[in-house]
Amino acid sequence: MNARNRAAVLCLLTLSVLSRAWSEEPAEDKPEIEKAAKPGKWDAAFAAFEKQDKEQPPPKDPLLLVGSSSFTRWKSAGKDLAPLPVINRGFGGSTMSAVLENYAKLVPPYHPKTIVVYEGSNDIAGGKKPAQVLEEFKAFVEKVNKDLPDTKIVILSVHLPPVRAKHFDAYRELNKLVAEYAQGAKNVSTIDASTPLLKDGLPQPELYGSDKLHFNAEGNKQWCAILKPVLEKVHGVPEPADKK
Fold first, then answer.
1. Which of 109, 66, 108, 103 is nearest to 86 (CA)?
2. Which pLDDT band, with edges at 50, 70 and 90, does 168 fall under?
3. pTM of the model
4. What is residue 29's predicted lDDT score, i.e. its pLDDT?
5. What topology does CATH give the domain 82-235?
6. Which of 18, 76, 87, 143 lies 20 to 30 Å from 227 when distance is taken between CA atoms?
7. C-alpha distances in angstroms, 87 versus 128, 142, 212, 224?
8. 3-state SS of the chain: helix, strand, coil percent to 5?
9. Residue 38 dihedral angles phi and psi, to the nearest 5°
10. Going by DSSP bridges, is the β-strand pair 188-191/152-156 parallel, antiparallel, or unpaired?
11. Beta pairing partners, 63
């Protein structure tokens, strides 16, 4: 092979590598999706939930957080949303299908007065279409309405993390579909908790951690400021113990 041909082959190989790199999810984003399909991925999370329930019995008529790592990493959710009686059962890397698979452990045992759901981000990043995720939300609502007919369900819109820019159109489509569905669904409402966090239609990087996927402390603070007033209206603010 002469020098000219070697140079041409090297150029083609370089372009191929660059093209693959540009089209793939960032390295810090991919493992969460890949691991989500592995059997037993969440065994440790559910064992921890069981231990927590034994050590500290859940409150009566709780507000139950069900979702992925945006909840898991919101360690101060109980404090931030007080006096609402919060139980945080986010499990990192989860999808709506994972919530359905683990429904019996996640929902009925707590007899929640309100369920707050945050899913969809991993679903879309993992290859599902917005319409498919919507059907899973519907299946979840049907289960809750059957088992807990008085329980209210609040679905949060998917926020737009900088690292997942290529999925933004799909996220917006999912948010739109879910909001339209909720208008006619029993006991279901939504909160647009993504649009208020945008600036000129784009995410604010300063609200995210180093992975550009999960909120940092300031991001959680602003997210909570959107959620809390609505959740207090939906769930009702408990009376202080000394006034009962």
1. 66
2. very high
3. 0.84
4. 43
5. Rossmann fold (3.40.50)
6. 143
7. 28, 22, 26, 15
8. 55, 10, 35
9. -80, 130
10. parallel
11. 86, 114
